[in-house]
Amino acid sequence: MNESRSDDDAGQDDDPSGLSPQQIAAKLDQLWPENVRLAAQSNLPIGQRVAHFNIRSLLGHGAFGVVYLADDTIEDRPVALKLPRVEVLCNPEKRKRFSAEAEMAKQFAHPGIVEVFQCETEGPTPYIASAWCDGGDLGKWKAQQMARGEYLPPWEHVVELLAEVADAVHYAHQQGVTHRDLKPANILLCRRLDESSDERQGLASFRPKVTDFGLAKFNDPSIGDACSSLLVGTPIYMAPEQFNRSSDKLVDPALADIYSLGAILFETLSGTSPIQGETYLEVLSSIQNDSTLRLSQVRKDLPAALSVICDNCLHKNPEARYESAARLAEDLRLCLAGEPVSKKTIHAVARGRFWFRRKDWYSVAGWFAIGSQSLVTTWLVLSDFFKVVFGVLTMQEYLAILPYLILIAATTSLTMILFGVFTIKRKRWAVWGGVVLSAFNLCAPLSAFFSQPVIFDEVYNANDPYFSFKIHLILLLCFLSQLILFLCAACPAKPTRNKAGVKLS
Question: Can you give the pTM of this predicted structure?
Fold first, then answer.
């Protein structure tokens, strides 16, 4: 279906089947006849035949599939014929995914989504035959424009095109499917054949069609996803929450598609990405941590409404984005008509909830427990030693309490530090151990405030009352902070519900 595939499986794990190359070859001989395997592997499979399709030329390929321009000998029409790569057939999970893509694509009936004519998933030669788009994809179109020195298209053409794409994405969302890999290469261009087509030039002469739902996921929580723990999608167009394996349980996954639409809109209007970074890791870090570029910073000659629309799509907080692709399409058309659009605002509770979810409370609680407990133990030991130096305590008194200090360091403090280490390693038992131990430690300073110190009462009674108060205040703040942070790590964020009220977990 797609004329250019970057592809959706790049970087995935090696084939877990454990088959030797000889076993793979033998299995391929059983699954595919030799002429089909040659067609899938050759860069020029002209004249090869798959079912009733004659392969004409190669359109695109990736790590998961190969797409050819072929002739349908029965319907007498050109088609885009997608075949899985040969190694996919030996991997049950990947073959299952190819079949899922075919079944998913067949259910769509929308002018903005590439039509699937026929698919075969059970036979020896799986394929997906879909409509061929003669204009290539949006990514290739932009590259061709740059090669000709015609860099950026008129903003009106871009907005009109993306409004139609948003309509198609909204339709898919209504069918319960999110795309999860929207990018220029997955927006195919077909020449318009209506009455006004002769008057249209450049990008306006094409009608967009969304393709490649290979990474798509049903919004129905009852449907399992074998690849849910893997990083899927093209990073530069991915929403920040897509990098979190549990994000689909916390937010409406359709909002990630809206982020991708905003990234495509921004890039097509400005010629640059809203995400900065030279390397793969820099891009990932920028998406999650850095502020997104504003369109008005890159192009000052565009309507202010376009910058607002991009901001509404590219907000790191999903709740601050458009609630649906239909609302995005509506605002794009308002902008075309010269009407104002408003920036979406969210209440303080939603902002606080987003801030809380973004924190890695396991790491925060673990490192704070390690650091604070180490400092407190060192401070207790050294402070009592310096009391001897300054004459507050005698050496005999210090030696009398030293075994207690060592006992605290070897039990309570060491145990808390170990809980902190295993909390960083995301061990849930360590989190609850930290909750219990920090609550127990909190009893000592609290009892000292309201009655007598639990430990070292003779020493504290001999000290200045204000000095003893400061000691217990420091311990109180330290242990209370530990307790709060461990509780934050122990209480996961609750799943939200989408607009239909379906719990997304």
Answer: 0.65
